[in-house]
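User: Hey, quick favor. My workstation is busy. Could you predict this chain's structure for me?
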Amino acid sequence: MKTSLEGKVALVAGATRGAGRGIAVQLGAAGAAVYVTGRTSGSQRSEMNRPETIEETAALVDEAGGRGIAVQTDHLDPDQVRALAARIDAEHGALHVLVNDIWGAARMEWNKTVWESDLDYGLRTLRLAVDTHAITSHFAIPLLIRTPGGLVVEVTDGTDEYNATNYRVSFFYDLAKAAVSRMAFALAHELRPHHATAVALTPGWLRSEAMLEAFGVTESNWRDATTRVPHFAISESPAFVGRAVAALAQDLDVSRWSGQSLSSGQLARSYGFTDLDGSQPDAWRYVPEVQDAGRPADTTGYR
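Assistant: No problem, here it is.
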């Protein structure tokens, strides 16, 4: 049961690049008006020293067939997020989809214990990954629940099943991703009386702008990087997780997923969408069964 998103309003918080940009564009391709927010606007570079801007994302939403509305917002600032929600209310009077994809950390400290980590940076990581989501939900959800059928997507890294038994990067990163997933569980409980749905959603190995640049490839020749990093063969474009969100937003029976931890590969099998190359990469089956198991890279049966 699928419907167009024409006439629907979405907010993708953290849409400057990566998964957030991919999600915003695919919601636009389904016909939605999409508010794209983040801190990086105009000619400035981000805290991550990246050049992408919210205006570029909004233009891509327009090109895809939707309406992109860029609003520079620091989601750590309650006053700015309050103003954003008020603007959406004034301009559209409704919000149907909220995607919390805010992150923006400048680096990750790999395999650092809590006592080895830079404490100031670790605490900032939690603020960027957790506080921002809570602040945005606080101000945006009252608008979303005015209309039955609303959807909240908490974007994280890793499924609940995988994260429950695997240490993720560092103490602070592990804690941040677990917290975001738990937010979706709690929100599902709170939204149920309002006939709205909340889910946690993870992409797989994402071919973000930064990842492509780090590997010295582009989206058109990304497979060249597999000669150096073989398991990169399971990677996916930001459009793939974007199509996952668009499929959820168009599903008239989306409440069946409420409170669950989902992945782009899982939803591709359920809804039938594909990545840009026509494949359906399923990273969160591949990682434990092939990569973590020490087997040679082979995506047969996984994309």
